[in-house]
Structure formats: C-alpha cells, structure tokens
C-alpha cells in the first residue's frame, strides 16, 4: 500500500495535548494505517513547557501563535485541543486553509458557532474527539443494539459524575469560566453523554433541564440534570455533576429494552453488563462480559483476550478509525456535523434550565 505522510500541528499542550500526542505516536503500532504521521509542530503558550513536552513526545518544533501555525503550507492536519472558546476560530481558520481538522469536544461554545464550524469544514475531513464511542465495551453495546438484542428501547439512563470542583476556593481556570468554556459541567461532561446517547439510541426530540451551582460566586453550573424524549419513543434521564463525592470519573449508562438490558461504567471500562430477557426467567441475570475479545471491537488490534485496555486506547482507536476512513475517502463519525448535533441538544438543555420549560429540538 502506498503510504502518504501527514504533517501534524497540535494546538494545545495540556491534558488532551498529551492524550493526542500519545495516539499519534501509538496508532501505527496497533493498526495498519496507510499514513506516516509526522509530529511537526506543537503549539501552546509557555515556551519552556513546550520545549519539555516536545522533547518528551517527539514534536519537531514548537510555536506560540496558533494563527500562523494553521496557515503553514507544510501542515496537512490541524488538531485543536485548546480551551473551548478557541475551538471555532482555530478550526475554521484551519478548514479555510484546506487542512484536515480534528477538534476536541464540545465542538463549540454554542450551536450557532458549531453550525459555522460545520459549514466552514464541509470540504475537509473532520473528527470530533468523542473518544468514548471507541471504548471496546461501548462499541460492543452499539453492536448489540444494532443487532436488535435489546429489542425496543424503553429507558436510557446516563450519568457522568466527578468530584474535582467541590472545593469552593478553586482558582477560576478556563473550565470554571463561562466565557472560555461555554458552560460548566453541561458543556464538559453532558456533551459526552449526549454524543453517546445520540449514537446508541438515536435523535432526541425534547428536553426538560435544571442546572445548579453549589460553589458560591462560581461562574458556571456545577451540576446539570435533564429528562429527554427520544425519537424512538424511549425516555431518557441524564445527570452530570462535578459534586459527586466518591466518583472520580464515572461515565455510565443503563439501557432497558423489550429484549434485554445493557449497563456500562467507565470506571470498569473493560466490562459490559448484558441481560438477555429471552433466557428462562429462573436463570435470568446480567452477564458481566469482559469485552477484550475474542470477537469484540478492537480486540484484534490490542492485547490477547482478557488483557485489558485503558483510557489511552480510546484515543488510539478513534484516530485509527479516522485514518482508515480518510484513506478510503469515507465519512468518519463523529465529525463536525455530529459535533454540531450534540451542541444543538446542549443549547436546548441550557434554554430549558433557564426557562423551566420543555424545549423541543429541531430535527437534524
Ligand atoms: N475527550 C475527552 O475526554 C476530553 C478530556 C478533557 C478535556 N477535553 C477537551 O479538550 C480541550 C482541552 O482541554 P484540556 O483538559 O487539555 O485543557 P488544558 O487546560 O489541560 O490544556 C489547554 C491547553 O491549551 C493551551 N492554550 C490556551 N490558550 C492558548 C492559546 N491562545 N494559544 C495556544 N495555546 C493555548 C494551554 O497552554 C494548554 O496547553 C477542551 O476542549 C476540553 O473540553 C476532552
């Protein structure tokens, strides 16, 4: 197979900068991707930290002005891992310069912005890093639902629980500042829940939401809860909070259908609980499936069956799927259109929380 070189610029050297750097380095070790990835430029704000990170992860150059980086003719792919408020400007500039554009979630600050991003990027391949679709157990849940193993879905229940914002005296970093983050836990964590729900259970028709800020004087909401009606007739409940004592990163869902039940919790991410309601009632119970192969999503790419994978593999697998789609000229999901659909639901959640009313979501 002819291999093409993709010269990459990564904007952002924080948490996600590391997760993405690792994916760029690892992807060809686990997947047969027809590209050689060149880690050309790492862009951030602090030259000293940039130099250290470039040396650790093998970036050839560093830069502090992302506007100049996205224009460079020797860059093929721009990866946006900046605070949310910079996503739109950077991704639109990159798309207009004809680059392949990857962007972190949530895609934008609001749906007006994400619509502009999707429009600007119509002619270029895009990806949103909703990495949890690529947890093998979550991809397997999707497969079971597609196969009809749950039957008609009645209930979709999702929570994303963290506890890091409970100290009231936390400095107002970008995630706690509305102008830079868009909103608080709703943009940050409910965005993941919504992406998974749209993928696993289809479009949402309407929502009724409440949000709350526990920390006195804080600029963004600490908790957001909402009810949802899905187009397939099922009912959804969603809860995202940074005040869940005892929970570091519990991204979990339970789905009940006429033929079965599924349950997933990221804190035990190699497992999926599955109940088959066609089993005789006297032996009915949830099976605790270890989703590491044989026959499970991504199993042949990582380790032997029973040898578990971790958080970083979700980014590696997402990137691999993107590169394979790119080489075949196929649409990758989730792309900017999908990121925009999430943003439309997020906007509805915010409007409902403000008005106390159900808010309908326009069909996509
Ligand atoms: N997919 C996931 O699970 C996941 C997890 C965490 C964060 N995220 C998303 O990733 C994005 C980044 O979050 P993070 O946790 O990595 O944040 P972070 O604060 O750790 O890193 C942000 C980086 O952006 C850089 N930066 C800020 N302003 C800049 C500018 N003007 N020019 C150049 N660089 C600039 C900072 O120096 C820093 O390196 C956010 O959109 C966030 O929502 C996604």
Keywords:
single chain; alpha/beta; Rossmann fold; Dihydrodipicolinate Reductase, domain 2; six-stranded parallel sheet; globular
Layout of secondary structure:
Elements: E1 4-11, H1 15-30, E2 35-43, H2 47-57, E3 61-63, H3 66-71, E4 77-80, H4 87-96, E5 100-103, H5 111-120, E6 126-128, H6 136-146, E7 153-161, H7 178-181, H8 185-201, E8 204-212, E9 223-230, E10 235-241, E11 250-257, E12 260-265, E13 271-276, E14 287-290, H9 311-328, H10 336-355, E15 359-360
Parallel strand pairs: 1-2, 1-4, 2-3, 4-5, 5-6, 7-10
Antiparallel strand pairs: 7-11, 8-9, 8-15, 9-10, 11-12, 12-13, 13-14
Helix pairs in contact: 1-9, 4-5, 5-10, 8-10
The structure holds nicotinamide-adenine-dinucleotide.
Residues 11-17, 43-45, 66, 81-84, 86, 104-105, 129, 131, 188 line the site of nicotinamide-adenine-dinucleotide.
Give the gist of this structure:
This protein is α/β, with parallel strands linked by helices and 364 residues long. 34% of the residues lie in helices and 25% in strands.
Structural description of this entry:
This protein is an alpha/beta fold and 364 residues long. It folds into 2 domains: 4-132, NAD(P)-binding Rossmann-like Domain (Rossmann fold, 3-Layer(aba) Sandwich), CATH 3.40.50; 133-309 and 342-355, 2-Layer Sandwich (Dihydrodipicolinate Reductase, domain 2), CATH 3.30.360.10. Helix content is 34%, strand content 25%. The protein contains 10 helices and 15 strands. The protein has helices at residues 15-30, 47-57, 66-71, 87-96, 111-120, 136-146, 178-181, 185-201, 311-328, 336-355, and strands at 4-11, 35-43, 61-63, 77-80, 100-103, 126-128, 153-161, 204-212, 223-230, 235-241, 250-257, 260-265, 271-276, 287-290, 359-360. The protein has a 9-stranded mixed beta sheet. Strands 3-2-1-4-5-6 form a 6-stranded parallel beta sheet, with helices on both faces. The model has no long low-confidence stretch (mean pLDDT 98). The protein binds nicotinamide-adenine-dinucleotide. Residues 11-17, 43-45, 66, 81-84, 86, 104-105, 129, 131, 188 line the site of nicotinamide-adenine-dinucleotide (NAD).
